[in-house]
Amino acid sequence: MARASAKTAESARRPSAPVTATLAWLLPGLGHWWLGERTRGVVFFTIITVTFWGGIAVGGVRSTVTPRENGAWIAAQLCMGPQALSALWWSNQRTIAHPTELKAPWPASNIGVVYAGVAGLLNLLVIIDVLARVESRQMALASKPPPQRDRSP
Amino acid sequence: MTIESLQSVFTEPVSIAGSGRLAMLIPLTLSVSIVYKTMRCERLAQVPLASLVLCLMILAVMGLIGVTLLLVFRLLA
């Protein structure tokens, strides 16, 4: 019983890299929040989300998040996780519902695509950073000496 | 603010002309600087100043590269 509770406490202290990376992809900064670095997580969430949706506001959702025209930029944008997926779905819906809608003129279209793409790449950087933090914590835990057993009679 | 007007913020593109194109570089550089420095700085109190310095450095270097390329273009023209 005591061993099981000690094991649970150990796994709670030891963060899992796949879980943390997935959380960071789902919502920018959530991985850092999960690790207990809450202010850092809030800063990442605010800055990256504002940059992504700022880009969409500049270029319009239809011109900014479109796999047909923006090539490799869509891969960068998809690093934003569900926010990018929802923007992509919205863009497709608008293309179907309003086929004659005017698209963004140059350079607004390009600026919007770059903003959203850079936001995705920043989130990729944040995911890499959170993985590095998980690894350093795991190494710190592994290098700790095992707890002394109570040898009293 | 109704849902339609909120929606139109993200569906209707903004027209940008002249120096507005260059001005759009500033918020992007600032966000890159803040995210980078938030990762690098151990103490979060250091982030505002460090990211401002990095942002100005990026803008200065990019401006320098732009001016150099313009001069090369003029010389070769």
In short:
The complex is a heterodimer of chains A (153) and B (77). With 153 residues, chain A is an all-alpha fold.
How would you sum up this structure, described in words?
The complex is a heterodimer of chains A (153) and B (77). Chain A is mainly α. In chain A, 75% of the residues lie in helices and 0% in strands. Chain A has 9 helices and no strands. With 77 residues, chain B is an all-alpha fold. Chain B has a domain at 24-76. Helix content of chain B is 77%, strand content 0%. The A-B interface holds A 39-40, 43-44, 47-48, 50-51, 53-54, 56-63, 90, 94, 101, 103-105, 107-109, 111-112, 114-115, 118-119, 122, 125-126, 129 and B 9-16, 21, 24, 27-28, 31-32, 34-36, 38-39, 44, 47.
Helix-strand category of chain A: mainly alpha
Oligomer: heterodimer
Largest interface: A-B, 37 and 21 residues
Shape of chain B: flat
Order of helices and strands of chain B: HHHH
Distance between the termini of chain A: 21 Å
Main β sheet profile of chain B: none
Number of strands of chain A: 0
Give the biggest beta sheet of chain A: none
Shape of chain A: elongated
C-alpha-based Rg of chain B, rounded: 18 Å
Feature tags:
heterodimer; A: 153 residues; mainly alpha; 9 helices; 75% helix; elongated; B: 77 residues; 4 helices; 77% helix; 0% strand; flat
What is the fold's blueprint, element by element?
The complex is a heterodimer of chains A (153) and B (77).
Chain A: H1 2-13, H2 17-26, H3 30-34, H4 38-59, H5 61-64, H6 67-70, H7 73-77, H8 82-97, H9 108-143
Helix pairs in contact in A: 2-9, 4-9
Chain B: H1 3-11, H2 20-23, H3 25-40, H4 47-76
Helix pairs in contact in B: 3-4
